[in-house]
Specification:
The chain is mainly α. Helix content is 78%, strand content 0%. The longest helix has 90 residues.
Length: 534
C-alpha cells in the first residue's frame, strides 16, 4: 500500500511538472506576462463553457489590449477563443477554413498546447457536423500531441472523444469510412483505462465506463455492462458528481430492465431523477419513460399511464426547446450572414468598379497599341512603296560591286572576266526568268563550273546565287507591275509563274523578304495610285 501511494504521489508530481512546463511552453519564456495571459485564457474558457459569450468576448478584447508584446502562439491561442465564440454563439461553421489555415501554421509547433487545442476544437466541429471521418483525423493528431507532451488528462480526454466518434460512426444513419468498427472504440477506451484513477482523471474515466456499459449492453453482455456502470457510479459518488451519478444510475436501470428486474430498474430511474434535478431535461425524460415501461411490464397500467403523461410533457418541452434553439440559431446565422452580405456587397461593388476601370484602361491601351502598331506599319509600308515607285534605278544591288578580276582569289582572271561578262548577258537577256533554273545549269551555259560561279557571285555581287536570282526576278516584277497595269489584274500565282516561280507562296515570300512588302499590298497601292491619277 505504501509503495502504491508513493508511486501515485510521484506520478501526480510528474504530471504537474509536465503540465506546468507545457503551459509555459505555449507562450515561450516563464515571465509575469505569460502567467497573466494563461490565467485570463482560463477565465475566458470558463465563460465560454458557461455560455457567457459576451463576457468572454469583452475579456478577450481586454486581454489583447493589456498584453502589448504577444508572440505568435499567444496570438493563435486568443484567436481560437474568438473562433469558439463565433461557433457556439452563432453556429458559424464557416470558421473551419480559418481554423485549418491557423493549424497549418501551428504544424511547425506540433508540441505546443495551442496545436492540441486547435486539433481538439476542429475535431469537435466535424463531430457536430457528423463528419466522423475528419473528426477522427484531428482527434488523432490531438492525442499524438498529448502523448508527446506526456499530458495524461489530454490523452484520456482525446481517447474519450475518439472512442465516441468511432461509436457514433457505428450507429449514425449517415455512412462513414469507419462504419462497423467498434473495435477502435474499445481500443481507445481501454487505452485511457490504463491510466490510474486520480482526482483529475476520474471525471473522464467515469464517462468512458458509462459508454462501455452502453456498448456491452447493446452487445448483450449484461454482466459486463453492469460492472462498468457500477464502476462509473462508484467514481462519480467519490468525486461527488451528481450529473455523472444520474447517468450511471440510468445505465443500471437499463441493465435491470434487460434482466427483467423491473422494480430494481424503477428504483434506479427514480434515484437518477433525484440526482439529475433540473440539470438535464432529456435524461429526466428518459428516466420517466423507463419507469413507465417498467410499470407496464409489471402490469401496473395506472402508474405506467401517469409516468407516460409526465414523459409527454417533458418531450413537448424538449421539442419546444429544440425548436427555440433552432430558431435562435437561424436568427444568429441570419444576423451574421446579413452583416457579411453587406460587407461583401460593398466589397463587390468596389471590386466591380475597379474591374470596370481596369478593363477600360486595359482595352484603351490595347486599342492604342494596335493603332500605333498598324499606323507605324502602314507608314513604313507606304514609305517603302514610295521608294520602290520613285526609284529610277534598281532598288537592289544586283550589279557587280567591283570589276577587278584579281579580287576572286584562286580563280584565273580570264575565267572571272568570262563569268562576269556572262552574268551581264544573263541579266540583259532576262534568263533569270527561266523556271526551275539551277546554278549548275547556269554554270554550264557559261562554260565553267558551279564552284567558280558561286565564288564570283559571292565576291562581286556580295550575295549567294539564290539571293542574286531572287533579287533579279523581284526587281523585274516591280518594273513590270509599274509599267504594265494589266499585269496587276493577274492573280499572284499567275504573276509568280511569269517571274519564274513554281507557286505564289514562294514568290510572296521572296517579294516580302527583299522589299519588305507583300506583293498583294504593292499591287493594291499601284492600282490606287492609278485611280488617283485618272
Amino acid at each position: 500500500m505504501k509503495t502504491n501511494y508513493f508511486w501515485q504521489l510521484k506520478n501526480c508530481l510528474t504530471l504537474f511538472l509536465v503540465y506546468s512546463y507545457s503551459n509555459l511552453s505555449l507562450f515561450g519564456q516563464n515571465n509575469i506576462q505569460d502567467s497573466i495571459l494563461i490565467n485570463q485564457l482560463k477565465e475566458i474558457d470558463y465563460k465560454i463553457d458557461s455560455r457567457k459569450y459576451k463576457d468572454a468576448k469583452l475579456l478577450l478584447e481586454k486581454t489583447e489590449k493589456d498584453i502589448k508584446k504577444m508572440n505568435a502562439s499567444s496570438r493563435y491561442a486568443i484567436n481560437l477563443r474568438f473562433f469558439k465564440i463565433q461557433y457556439y454563439e452563432y453556429n458559424n461553421e464557416e470558421i473551419i477554413d480559418e481554423l485549418l489555415k491557423n493549424l497549418d501554421f501551428l504544424a511547425q509547433k506540433e508540441t505546443s498546447i495551442t496545436y492540441y487545442s486547435y486539433c481538439d476544437f476542429i475535431g469537435q466541429v466535424f463531430k457536430d457536423a457528423k463528419n466522423f471521418n475528419k473528426s477522427i483525423k484531428y482527434y488523432r493528431r490531438a492525442i499524438r500531441n498529448a502523448e508527446i507532451r506526456n499530458d495524461t488528462i489530454d490523452i484520456i480526454f482525446s481517447c474519450l472523444k475518439l472512442g465516441s466518434c468511432y461509436y457514433r460512426g457505428e450507429y449514425e444513419d449517415t455512412p462513414q469510412y469507419y462504419k462497423n468498427n467498434l473495435d477502435s472504440t474499445l481500443f481507445y477506451y481501454n487505452k485511457a483505462l490504463k491510466f490510474p484513477e486520480t482526482p483529475k482523471n476520474n471525471r473522464f474515466l467515469t464517462r468512458i465506463y458509462d459508454n462501455l456499459s452502453k456498448i456491452q449492453l447493446a452487445k448483450g453482455n449484461v454482466s459486463s455492462a453492469e460492472n462498468y456502470a457500477n464502476k462509473a457510479l462508484r467514481i462519480n459518488r467519490k468525486i461527488n458528481n451528481s450529473f455523472g451519478i444520474a447517468v450511471s444510475l440510468l445505465n443500471l436501470s437499463n441493465v435491470s430492465f434487460y434482466k427483467n428486474e423491473y422494480l430494481k430498474a424503477i428504483e434506479y430511474s427514480k434515484k437518477s431523477n433525484y440526482f439529475i434535478g433540473n440539470k438535464s431535461i432529456s435524461i429526466r425524460r428518459d428516466n420517466l419513460e423507463d419507469i413507465a415501461e417498467n410499470y407496464e411490464k409489471l402490469g401496473n397500467y395506472k402508474l405506467a399511464h401517469q409516468y407516460s403523461k409526465e414523459t409527454n410533457i417533458l418531450s413537448k418541452k424538449i421539442s419546444k426547446a429544440i425548436s427555440n434553439k433552432k430558431i435562435n440559431s437561424i436568427e444568429a446565422k441570419y444576423r451574421l450572414v446579413k452583416e457579411k452580405q453587406l460587407t461583401l456587397q460593398e466589397k463587390n461593388r468596389r471590386l466591380q468598379i475597379q474591374l470596370l476601370l481596369n478593363s477600360a484602361i486595359f482595352l484603351i491601351i490595347i486599342i492604342l497599341a494596335l493603332g500605333l502598331f498598324y499606323y507605324t506599319r502602314n507608314k513604313n509600308y507606304k514609305k517603302r512603296f514610295e521608294e520602290l515607285i520613285n526609284s529610277q534605278q534598281k532598288s537592289f544591288t544586283v550589279e557587280q560591286v567591283e570589276t577587278n578580276p584579281k579580287k576572286a582569289t584562286k580563280i584565273p582572271p580570264k575565267i572571272v572576266k568570262n563569268i562576269l561578262d556572262n552574268l551581264d548577258l544573263f541579266e540583259e537577256n532576262k534568263a533569270f526568268l527561266t523556271k526551275n533554273i539551277t546554278m549548275r545549269e547556269v554554270a554550264k551555259t557559261f562554260n565553267t563550273n558551279s564552284s567558280y560561279l558561286s565564288k564570283v557571285v559571292n565576291s562581286y555581287k556580295n550575295k549567294n546565287f539564290t539571293t542574286y536570282l531572287n533579287e533579279l526576278r523581284i526587281q523585274y516584277a516591280i518594273e513590270e507591275l509599274k509599267q504594265n497595269p494589266e499585269l496587276c489584274l493577274y492573280t499572284i500565282e499567275a504573276i509568280a509563274e511569269t517571274m519564274g516561280y513554281n507557286n505564289g507562296e514562294s514568290f510572296s515570300l521572296a517579294f516580302r523578304k527583299i522589299t519588305g512588302l507583300y506583293p498583294s499590298y504593292f499591287i493594291k497601292q499601284l492600282q490606287k495610285n492609278q485611280l488617283d491619277n485618272q
